[in-house]
Amino acid sequence: MPLNNEQWDEIKNNKKIWLVTGSAGFIGSHLVEHLLQMNQKVIGLDNLSACGSKNLDILRQSLSADCWERFTFIRGDIRDFEICIKACQNTDYILHHAAIGSVSKSLENPVLVDSVNVGGFLTLFTAAAQCKVKRFIYASSSAVYGDTTQQPNKEDQPLSPQSPYAVGKYANELYAAALGEHYALETIGLRYFNIYGSRQDPNGSYAAVIPKWVEALTKNRCVEIYGDGETVRDFCHVSDVVQANILAATTNDNEAVDAVYNIASGQKTSLNELFSLLRKNITSNTAPVYKSPRPADIRTSCANISKAAKDLSFKSTVDLEDGLKKIIKIYQEKAA
Questions:
Q1: What is the CB neighbour count within 10 angstroms for residue 170?
Q2: For residues 264 and 302, is the Cβ–Cβ distance under 8 A?
Q3: 165, 192, 196, 331: which one is catalytic?
Q4: Partner of 264 at 20 to 30 A CA spacing, among 52, 198, 234, 241?
Q5: Helices (H), the chain
Q6: This model's pTM is above 0.90
Q7: How does pLDDT run across 287-336, given as a tens digit for each residue?
Q8: Annotated catalytic, 145?
Q9: How far apart are CA 19 and CA 118, in angstroms?
């Protein structure tokens, strides 16, 4: 965990109650894991529609009994107000990550995705306000910027969401700004770029390019690249996302709240460069197959993270190649 010793000790010695929505998912399960290791009490809310319980099963087996006793799981939907009220009772901080995280699915079924990503957000937000939660941290997305030539993306630049998924994430930001002051609920939005790390499903949602390619190369299968491979992304390790959430929830700087922040590495990597790094570390001779670009795909997406560094003391700590080596090792051990 990339917090300094003083921050780590302060949080461990000041036990709070945290609600993590989407707690069985990729990012959510990492948040649960680290918070339990930091002596916190954690409530998880998830309907298990995306990943089932496999990530929580892994945590149950890997964490100490003392850690696991501080975790309470509620199976339920964020669109259910009574479930949200139950989950928010006596909660200090909410880390909201429950969503349908797919651009392609939002194009196929915008009504469903909007009902979860926007309707569910509003339902949880209203419950949090009613239960007097101290601070509401929520996952936004780099998708709100759209396909713009203004690179790297800065929080104050014009937004141009190109999919229902991106529109929904922007709507969350607007609702947080419009209702946060009205409800006296502190909010911080985190615009994630391309997050990767352990427990990310290679068969999961859109943009999970790293686990898909690692699994394919490990098994000597074909890797598909949409477009010419010069699409640029900003890959950020999930441990840095955990860092950002905890810093956002616990900051004592009043100027840092009621804002949104880019959370990323701040480094540009093309898909061709990513493929070369993976093939180098997996020692594979597999050549990629190039296919037509996907609808609403963004050509270049890279973050300026200076605002998060200044206001939240956020710092990206995992180099991409080092992070990839960790993922490759996990997949190779599974395949052995």
A1: 23
A2: yes
A3: 165
A4: 52
A5: 5-12, 26-37, 54-62, 65-68, 81-88, 103-108, 110-114, 121-130, 164-183, 209-218, 238-250, 271-282, 306-312, 320-335
A6: yes
A7: 899 999 988 889 999 999 999 999 999 999 999 999 999 999 988 887 66
A8: no
A9: 19
